[in-house]
Amino acid sequence: MNNGERRSKQLNKKIVSGITLTFILLSVLTLAFDIQSVKAEPATIIVPDDYERIQWAIGNASDGDTIFVRAETYYENIVVDKTVLLIGEDRETTVIDGGGRGTVVKVETDNFNISGFTVQNSGSASFGIELLNSDGSTISGNTVINNTGSGIYLFGSSNNTFVGNTVINSNGSCIYLFGSSNNTFVGNTVTNNTWDGIYLYGSSNNTFVGNTVTNSAWDGISPSGFSNNNTFVGNTVTNNAHHGIYLSGFSSNNTFVGNTVTNNAENSIYLFGSSNNTFYHNNFIGNTHQVYASSDSLDNMWDDGHPSGGNYWSDYEEKYPDADELDGSGLWNTPYDINANNTDNYPLMYQWPPLDTDGDGTPDVDDAFPLDGSESVDTDGDGVGNNADTDDDDDGMPDTWETENELDPLNAIDGSLDPDGDGLTNLQEYQGDTDPKVSDAQAFHLWVSGVAAAVVIGGAVAATFLWRRRKQP
């Protein structure tokens, strides 16, 4: 073998080796990719089956995984730094107990979900559940109890949702927002705390709907420190040691609609240096005082105009004994004066929303049958609702006959009218089984004309028949 052949053979070996190595590398990469793909699929981790502690499960989880925690008490403080779904088996018996040390559940990630736990026993000045710069998380169906700081605390956290949680016995505010915006709280129960029930500081554009706030050592709901543009709808704020709702620190442009504020030891609403807030369709009942507004609390709106109305004040009739209803609108005709800068121009006569015992959509005050969901109107006052009554206006003409003849079944006056001008009223037309839209004279003329036409036609037919018979051989 000459040198040229030897070099060619060596080159061929190198090429083959290179191709082989390439295939090996591609195989390894493909295998690694397949492994990574499998690993990326969301997994379910069970505590204590897979990991004895919740924190260990979080540490070994990947984003998107679900951690299911069986019912028992776990003595630990957990830090969540991954986007996982943390689910307790039973809200009452799946307990995370902080043992009196630090925050029990600290969330340092976005899009985290937790539900079905009791979270209790935080350390001094710490929290039950803390969201630290967390966005897009959901906290639902938990009981947060016996914590030495706030039950739920948000710091710099936005676009989170809190639904159906119970926050009890907090040594601070039950729910505390600091510099946190665009969060939503729906159907939470907040009770028995040593500070405010819900406290906002420098927090704006949050929404609170259908929450219950009771037995706070200070105020029920307290936006403070430039907390602006928050919305409170349908909340119940009751039995708080100071004020039901306390706005201070230049908190403005907040909206309160359909809330019930009752039996608070001082004021239902206390405004200190807070302007341009809106209050309507709220119930202020049984508070020691109704509203205090400082002289620098200006341009607050206390009604939604006519006919929507303002608020229900339990002491209204005592303050304004000569007031009357405004044009049957359910509003009082005398404004409720708070001070020179704050007035409810259209106070409600009844609580909001108006009571609807039978749930038929018609308030009891307007319902002829408040206990019968199938009836609400009795036009003729005969004790039979319009749906069951065959003659709603009691004019002697059945509703179906009036409708067929383009009359009004809810207006008794049309029974005495004579729209066709034949001298017979609509009632007489019904009794005589005649048409109320065609006069009897016109009907008789048409009948005669019809008879005459029939005679002529009959005669012509008979003459033709006889002529044909005569022509037959």
Notes on the protein architecture:
The protein is an alpha/beta fold and 473 residues long. It has 2 domains: 44-344, Pectate Lyase C-like; 441-473. The chain has 6 helices and 34 strands. The strands form 5 sheets. An 11-stranded parallel β-sheet has the order 1-2-5-8-11-14-17-20-23-26-29, with helices on one face. Strands 3-6-9-12-15-18-21-24-27-30-32 form an 11-stranded parallel β-sheet, with no helix packed on it. Strands 4-7-10-13-16-19-22 form a 7-stranded parallel β-sheet. The radius of gyration is 40 Å and the shape is elongated. The N and C termini lie far apart (138 Å).
Mean pLDDT: 87
Helical content, roughly? 10-25%
* Rg: 40 Å
Strand content: 25-35%
Given helix and strand content, the structural type is: alpha/beta
Helix count from the secondary structure assignment:
6
Characteristic key phrases:
34 strands, 6 helices, 11-stranded parallel sheet, elongated, 26% strand, Pectate Lyase C-like, 2 domains, 473 residues, alpha/beta
Give the helices and strands, then pairings:
Elements: H1 3-40, E1 44-47, H2 54-60, E2 66-69, E3 73-75, E4 78-80, E5 85-88, E6 95-97, E7 105-107, E8 113-115, E9 118-120, E10 129-132, E11 138-140, E12 143-147, E13 152-155, E14 161-163, E15 166-170, E16 175-178, E17 184-186, E18 189-193, E19 198-201, E20 207-209, E21 212-216, E22 221-224, E23 231-233, E24 236-238, E25 245-247, E26 255-257, E27 260-262, E28 267-271, E29 278-280, E30 283-285, E31 289-293, E32 312-313, H3 316-319, E33 336-339, E34 342-344, H4 399-404, H5 426-431, H6 440-471
Parallel strand pairs: 1-2, 2-5, 3-6, 4-7, 5-8, 6-9, 7-10, 8-11, 9-12, 10-13, 11-14, 12-15, 13-16, 14-17, 15-18, 16-19, 17-20, 18-21, 19-22, 20-23, 21-24, 23-26, 24-27, 25-28, 26-29, 27-30, 28-31, 30-32
Antiparallel strand pairs: 33-34
